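Box 3.1. Reading complex inputs
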Amino acid sequence: MIFPFTAIVGQEEMKTGLILNVIDPSIGGLLIMGERGTAKSTAVRALADLLPEIEVVKGCRFNCDPDGFLCTECREKLLKEGRLERERRKMRVVELPLGVTEDRVVGTLDIEHAIRMGERRFEPGILADANRNFLYVDEVNLLEDHIVDLLLDSAAMGVNTVEREGISFVHPARFILVGTMNPEEGDLRPQLLDRFGLCVKVSSIQDKFMRMEILRRKAAFDDDPEGFKRAWAREQEELARAIMEAKRRLERIEITDEVLESIVTITSSLNLDGHRADIVMMKAARALAAFRGKERIGLEEIRDSAGMALNHRMKRLPFEEIGAQEEKLELLLSSIGDGWR
Amino acid sequence: MRFSEFVGHEDAKLALILNAIDPRCGGVLFLGEKGTGKSTLARLFKEIVPEGTRFLELPMNVTEDGILGGVDIEETVRSGVRVYRPGILERVNGGILFVDDINLLPPEMIAFLLEVQDRGEEIVEREGMSLRYPSVFIMVATMNPEEGELSPHLLDHFGMCVLWKGLRDRMDRMDVMRISSEEIFQRIPKTDEELRRRIELSRKRLGDITVPEDIELYIVQTCMENGVSGHRADIFLFYAARAYAAFCGDGILGREHVDAVAPLVLAHRRRMAQQMEEMEEEQEHRHEHGDEGDSDTPPHDTRPKGKGLEEFGSADSYRIEANPKEDVFEIGTTFRTRRISFKRDRIKRLALGRRTKTISKGKGGRYVRSVMDPREKDIAIDATLRAAAPFQSFRRMDATYPTAIVIKPEDLRFKRKERRMRHIVVFVVDGSGSMGVKRRMREVKGAIQSLLVDCYQKRDRVAMIVFRRDGAELVLPPTSSVEMASKKLKDIPTGGRTPLSAGLFEAYKLIRRTYIKEKETRFAVVLVTDGRANRSISGLPIDEELERIAGILRGLSGVDYIVVDTEDKKGFLRTDLALKIASLLNAYYFRMEDLRSDLLADIARFAKRNEEGVRCAVPVD
């Protein structure tokens, strides 16, 4: 039984970061950094309840998009039958546990099938399950290096190509990567860090009454999970509806030159690598505007998405004070939009 | 022996009782020295839980498969149907898991245990299996902090922690809240039967206990005042207090219940660094009082000396203590260090840690190639099938085999795997007067502190040797506690001459001693110095002495050397003596500023050699 998303107290930035990724999956995921015991994992698992349905090829083990890149099986089917049937499936949060083995990530030879039937058949791995879903890695900084390599490979290509144990198979593997980590336990490799579209930092809530509320809700949930869920059903439905509505409105949000200029002003003044930051920031601001029911992106949306898009991309130069880049960002954010109406 | 016959340790008993009443209390960790009855009491726990409750003990040599479950591959090949062998976490569902000496398990395995306990469900994604099953259990664990630490992150998952006698006495002076043993002693029934009935009854009462709002506030405030991080403490404290109220037979949760159990819930959540510091101060305090003699006299050295090194016999250890006139510099600014790892060797290990690649003895790791060596435990299906393929048409003529593919023992191929391991990193630090020039020592300490953080993240063990004045001292034997090392680092004084060979000799002795016990260990000796040796320990000329000791060190197997040159290269008196020592040791050589992480250098995959043949950048494998 999963704790309802809407019943999580506080941690607004983390919740927003997750919701934005549901609204626009191309934002590219979320990294949640923070102390232990701050509802990081709870929030990610709770997200499952709010996820919308997607259209897939009927019966496909890889969640293939009928209008997108197809897996080996769907392609053969299309060739044979000339058309593909469709069905709707709810998006999921797929977990990558720490003790995972390589073959379970990419998929492997179906041993049972091989031995009984003497045929080679591909058995899908987690990357297959994760296609067009959320892929959640708890303690992502503790993941073994060779597993990280596998994730990076398929994240870069959007495809998982398996050439091992005598089988060759290709299937789409586009996932929204969500990771949590406690930075005290170790760093994340820069390549992996950059893969996360957004990053939020969470810390313990210091407000007594909010903490009492956390305690109360947790105890109530433990006591009667079903009843607790019922009590929160309306909030859950409302949020799910708001997310769907934002998804629909997303394409209609206008991106003005002023917006683009402001974003570029911010990113070019900071010490960043590459252009991913600009794109992510633009997309996050747009999703935020859609979620807030606006017609266009406003200054608030740029401000609110800047931190999330840049938290993990700002590098500290040697000998620079801790927090210097953050201060610079603050300054930039307060100065943008002076010329706006 | 019966639970109720166990004498003393009322707080530990209470912790077990509360968990028996409400498993949501989150388990117990007993923290204490060897031979103090921790494990005995933990095993007696099964006497007071309902009959038929499973009690499993996690064996020390458990494999990942043993914990998480996995494919029984031989059985699978034989029967043609995938046979799954459940792990301990599945079998323990609804029962009690006892983990003796939990800190000796690989950190990864501890993480599995705690993650599953937290979630109440186990997810298996291994070897073609994808399963979920419930796994709700009470975890009781013990550890002896002298044998290594648990990270605060892992500690936080335990609902309660009991500081065992001895350890507790040392912490007495600290501001630790105490359980009132007398009161609890009065409350615990005198026979196991009675206690079991009482627990049963309390369990039924749990739901009827009223929780006033001001008590919720009191719980939250108590946690916040103790500076815990996150919100787990609040929740554990609530469950513990409620279980205690039920145990006392009270209908309303009150402050007295919270106060009574708070020490159990909060002991391990205060910041560890703070605790260490307090313990240290205490020890120093005692030391001052117990040892009033002349501090200049070196204490008698009882450690064994290295064989065949009689000429260095005079290199006895000296206590490194600051003179009032000498400086003890603060730790300067820290930075992120570059990636440092070493070449893989041929030894096969049950690898722990995250630094250097090694051939793995266990299940984990990356499958690099298949071998015929049956000592490897995992069958490589791909290679096995390939080996069996040519004989299929022949073998299938024999109708006694029901499967499509016939595999015989001689076809079996096994996986050779690779993963990363930790090292013992021995810091050999120059504390001589020349290091204090222009407060250089501050920066040096900052650089060492940065390396220590890296060691923690790579899960290395660390040791520290300081040489100055007339000798060298092992100030910290190998430990997993980087916090300890950091504390020792802070205290290193600066002043006096430079007995560099004494420092190296001390490292030699340490490595020899440790190697006898742990043959698989790899060492990295990090020598931090400006290289200006000016004190001989054998009477030989300094250069000759250094050359000889470096030769002996080079002869040790499984040891890598790093020299960190602290000399100010812009200075007027640049000597580059540390570079010479690096070439004597065949060491990797860094100037202090080279230690910083720098993306370009990290990408460079080659060890550049300078004109003297010294490797100047560490290769990233």
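In summary: Residues 357-420 of chain B form one domain.
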